[in-house]
Design a protein that fits this description.
The structure is a single chain. The protein has five helices and no strands. The chain has helices at 2-14, 17-72, 75-85, 102-107, 125-131. It is rod-shaped, with a radius of gyration of 40 Å. The mean pLDDT is 82.
């Protein structure tokens, strides 16, 4: 009979309004904490996808730069790059400027006269660069 009274007392404590209220508050606190972790995990996943996309773009850029560096390792690549960036010619060559394009406006002087470059006896920019 002692067990019966002890069980009845435990049941009274467990089913009391205070205990049930305390359990409800604890469940609510755990739910809020779980939801906060869920939101943080979603944000982290979104940031991870953004970083992976950025990494892919940077890898493509690195591959393009590697290709450009490889192209510039030989003399032909250096010459092509110099000719594309600057108006340089080798000794004995003449530069031809075609009329009618954007380069035409840049190639005319203030009086409107077409300016052409001719090779001179002094070493060209390309030859000076190559001698280094």
């Amino acid at each position: 009979m002692f067990d019966f009274h002890e069980k009845r007392r435990m049941r009274g404590i467990l089913y009391s309004r205070v205990t049930i209220s305390l359990m409800f508050v604890l469940a609510a606190a755990l739910s809020v904490s779980t939801y906060d972790r869920y939101v943080a995990a979603r944000e982290t996943g979104a940031k991870l996808e953004e970083r992976e996309a950025e990494l892919a773009v940077l890898k493509e850029r690195a591959a393009a730069l590697e290709a450009q560096v490889k192209h510039l390792e030989n003399d032909r690549g250096i010459e092509e790059e110099l000719r594309s960036r600057y108006d340089v010619v080798r000794q004995g060559e003449e530069a031809v400027i075609l009329v009618g394009g954007e380069r035409d406006a840049k190639a005319r002087d203030d009086a409107g006269i077409l300016v052409t470059k001719e090779a001179t006896e002094t070493p060209s920019f390309f030859e000076r660069l190559r001698s280094w």
